[in-house]
Amino acid sequence: MTDTDATHPSSLSPVISVNNLVKYFGRFVALRGVSAVFDAGRMYALIGDNGAGKTTFLRALAGLTKPTRGSISVLGNLDIHSVCRYFGYMAHPSLLYDEMSGVENLRYFSRLYGIRNDQRCAEVIRLVGLDPQLARPVGQYSQGMRQRMSLARVVIHDPKVLLLDEPFSNVDVSSAREIVELLAQMRDSGKTIVVVTHQAQLLEGAADEFVWMREGQIVSRTSDSQSSRREPEER
Predict the structure, then answer these.
(1) 42: which of 8, 30, 160, 207 is 20 to 30 A away, CA to CA?
(2) Lowest mean pLDDT segment, chosen from 15-29, 76-90, 187-201
(3) How many other C-beta atoms lie within 10 A of the C-beta of residue 172?
(4) pLDDT tens digits, one per residue of 142-183
């Protein structure tokens, strides 16, 4: 398969396909045979208790954690690193440089993707609801502003897939809802979005599917967060 083929999969093909993913850390089993598909133009909320395997799964999707066994296909390609430029990964906590302004941060990260258009930086800052003329260091931003700037960093290169780890952490409800609206707009533009969160209620009405994890497994996938939290049926 050529790189062109990999980046233009059939409209019927999932953007991400995971098959029997297992991950050990020493003797601890973090992922236990996870299989799942994620489609274009959909937003998924990945929820579960601490230690359920959510962040490990997200990092595996991003190519940052190598699975012990199993496979992940992204855009039709089993070599994740060959298509990683089509990802936008938001870690928890943020990867921003506190001593730089928002524009300086985006200018730095955009250069990593070969983008040398400062207009693109200003455009993305406005997209997330911030002022590109704001000169003060990111270290002086409120938590809501920091999360918006983190999202700007994630989308600076216009990725096809967004993988977000706790984007609403320590953010006030009003700012969190505005971030959800931004994510919904990006989803509607055709992006695949996977959000790890402990605040699933914020994504009610926005997420297309709630994926509940427990003890390294996906135990249910539903259209609302409340039914996701019910005990799954015995298999």
Answers:
(1) 30
(2) 76-90
(3) 12
(4) 988 999 999 999 999 999 999 999 999 888 899 899 999 999
**Sign for the pseudo-dihedral over CA of 184, 185, 186, 187:** positive
Residue 106 Cα distances to 114, 118, 140, angstroms: 12, 9, 16
Please tell me the distance from the alpha carbon of residue 163 to that of residue 74, in angstroms, as a whole number: 13
Indicate whether 56 belongs to any domain. yes
Q: What percent of the chain has pLDDT over 70?
A: 91
Are 22 and 68 within 8 A, CB to CB?
Answer: yes
- CATH number of the CATH domain containing 73: 3.40.50.300
Q: What's the predicted TM-score (pTM) here?
A: 0.88
CA 196-202-205 angle, 5° bins: 105
Distance of alpha carbon 197 from alpha carbon 48, whole angstroms = 8
Per the domain annotation, does 234 fall within a domain?
A: no
Cα–Cα distance measured from residue 133 to residue 101, given in angstroms and rounded to the nearest whole number: 9
Within-domain flag for 233 = no
